[in-house]
Amino acid sequence: MTRTAEHARRGEWFSPDGRRILAARLLRTFGFGYLAVVLAAYLAALGKSPIEVGAVLTTTIAGTATATVLSSLWADRLGRRRTLVALSVLMTAGGLIFAAGDALWLLLLGAFTGAMSVSGSDIGPANTIDQAILPQTTTDARRTRLFSYYTMAGNLAAAVGALFAGTVAFFARLGLDGADAYRPLFVVYALIGVGNALLLGRLTAAVEVPAADAEEPARPPGFLGVHRSRSIVVRLSLLYGLDSFAGGFTVQSLVAYWFTLRWHLSPEALGALFFADGLLSGASLLVAGRLAERFGLLRTMVFTQLPSNLLLILLPLAPSTGLAMAVFLARSSISQMDIPTRQSYNMAIVEPDERTATAGITNVARTAAGAAAPLLSGYAYSIAALGAPFFFAGALKVVYNVLIYRAFRHIHPPEERLRREAGDAG
User: Fold this and answer.
1) What are the backbone dihedrals phi and psi of residue 22, each rounded to the nearest 5 degrees, phi first?
2) Element holding 370 (H helix, E strand)
3) CB of 230 closer than 8 Å to CB of 223
4) pLDDT digits (tens, 9 = 90+) for 342-352
5) I need a surface site. Which of 25, 229, 289, 356 has the fewest CB within 10 A?
């Protein structure tokens, strides 16, 4: 009896390893949530120039991308548990470097190696390995629901983390001045790394790459860890790159900036708006799993995104502040539903030993493709073309939806194939 079957027999729809992954995700994204808010302000309080602040943030992104590539290539060989523990140790080291260091070269080192996030999102190497592990902690029928919980946990933890950034004022009232008021948050980040290492160190051998069937022919070596599914991964990466490039025009910081320029919202109002955004998007992820079980992963991905993209195009056309906020929150209630379904679909249609590489390649493609779009949005804002980024992003995302549905509508995950075969037999 497999571990998954054993847990199902005991009434557990996902294994203790899955629960440890979810707990580590909560801790990690809580830290990412407040670091994304305070990191630039902390660097400025240290006396760093805007160019130096930009250099540290860019180095953080470069370090995340590098670690994701290396994890994709080596995690399955070195061991997924061992790699996740090592990444947790790097979190601790990065937090301590930022808490104690003032020199630019030391901050750049901590940024590159500290497994941090400047966006509040968890799209780094740990997320890549988690995606490969989660399908092995549950059944095919419950895989998408587990990815929904995984994504929801991250969204809600990041939202709470963003609120935790306000403790800077508390430390200032205790007598810590300037940059010193920020330092305790980096100590907390280091402790999060310790907690993650302890949690993930308890993962079992069941999280590692499944052993190949002795009766199967030897697998070809493949490219970057992908062999039989190379064509699928290339097409997914190109399409996800298009989607991420479109999304880069309307990342959270730029949408907040748009609300400031167009409707003059205060920081307090923006904080409340984006906290509500996090709650709505988190709640919608529970619905995503149910919809996918009924209509299929690809259809759920595409047909929840089409109305979301229409609302994105309509947002800059709203004639009042209240209506603009209502349109934004309406979009929040469906805009994230493609994330768990996309991750579940990716892991379902490739071979088990290709999952880490697939998650890494598609994550890097998304990160790289979305990097240039914010610069173009900034230019549009500078010439008062405030609606252009929303129109362009929405239109490109519709194109992506159409292309991915046409390319993959005949490729079904195992549980959907079984349902189709059962229906045909019936």
Assistant:
1) -65, -40
2) none
3) yes
4) 999 999 999 88
5) 229
DSSP state at residue 226: B
Contact between 39 and 116 (Cβ < 8 Å) = yes
- The pLDDT tens digits of the residues spanning 172-215 come to 888 888 889 889 999 999 999 999 999 999 999 999 987 654 44
Among residues 199, 210, 28, 190, the alpha carbon closest in space to that of 94 is found at 190
Could you tell me the two tokens for 294?
């009924």
Rounded to whole angstroms, the Cα distance separating 249 from 372 reads 9
Sequence spans of domains, the chain: 13-146+163-208, 228-420
Specify the length of the chain in residues: 426
Same fold, 13-146+163-208 and 228-420: yes
Return left, alpha or beta for 116; rule: phi > 0 is left, psi -120 to 50 is alpha, else beta.
beta
Q: How far is CA 414 from CA 154, 266, 347, in A?
A: 26, 49, 11
- At 38 the three-state DSSP class reads helix
CA distance 109 to 60: 9
Q: How far apart are CA 340 and CA 142, in angstroms?
A: 12
Closest of 314, 261, 245 to residue 253, by C-alpha:
261
Annotation: CATH topology of 13-146+163-208: Growth Hormone; Chain: A; (1.20.1250)
**Could you tell me the pLDDT band of residue 268, with boundaries at 50, 70 and 90?**
low
321, 334, 356: which is closest to 127 by C-alpha?
356
> SS3 of 423, please?
helix
Residues 136-149, mean pLDDT to the nearest whole number: 87
Q: Rounded distance, CA 303 to CA 363, Å?
A: 22
Location of structure tokens 């990716």: 346
Q: Is the pLDDT of residue 395 over 60?
A: yes
Contact yes or no for 193/88 (Cβ under 8 A)? yes
Phi and psi angles of residue 14, each rounded to the nearest 5 degrees, phi first: -145, 155
The angle subtended at Cα 100 by Cα 21 and Cα 189, nearest 5°, is 15
Q: Which residue carries 């010193």 as its tokens?
A: 180
CB-based burial of residue 271 (10 Å sphere; 0-12 exposed, 13-18 middle, 19+ buried)? middle
Query: Torsions phi, psi of 222, nearest 5?
Result: 75, 180
Q: What is the CATH number of domain 228-420?
A: 1.20.1250.20
Helix (H, G, I), strand (E, B) or coil at 203: coil
Helices (H) and strands (E) in the chain, counts: 19, 0
Return the DSSP state at 206. G
* Alpha carbon distance 25, 20 (integer Å): 8
Pick the residue with more confidence: 28 or 384? 28
